[in-house]
Specification:
4 helices, alpha/beta, Transcription Regulator spoIIAA
Length: 112
């Protein structure tokens, strides 16, 4: 898995994931998301465009991050989930709790 975190000019943080988000690398992803939240961004976006697979540990991480962001009053959005990830979110009902956007740009520009 490759993870890249970048800050935007207006203070948002975008965490981009490529590869598989599963038990083998969930700790690395958790560290990146926790550090991004710890920097107190105005918004946190998880870019899932290049995510190939997500197991239950990855989904739990996204749900935990959403709870932590809500507690810190930082909006958390998922951007560009591939079809397989969208299906996982739908089957589990998690699509009803996340703010889902078709692209990072749309996630960043949506009203807060």
């Amino acid at each position: 898995m490759a993870i890249q975190v970048r800050r935007t000019a207006d203070g948002a943080a975008v965490c981009s994931f490529a590869g598989d988000l599963d038990l083998d690398n969930v700790t690395e992803a958790d560290t990146a998301l926790r550090e991004a939240l710890g920097a107190r961004p105005t918004l946190l976006v998880a870019d899932l465009e290049h995510l190939g697979f997500c197991d239950s540990s990855g989904l739990n991480l996204l749900l935990k991050t959403r709870m932590n962001a809500t507690a810190a009053e930082i909006p958390f959005r998922l951007a560009a989930p591939p079809q397989a990830i969208t299906r996982l979110l739908d089957i589990t009902g998690a699509d009803t709790v996340f703010s889902l956007h078709p692209s990072v740009d749309e996630a960043l520009s949506a009203p807060r």
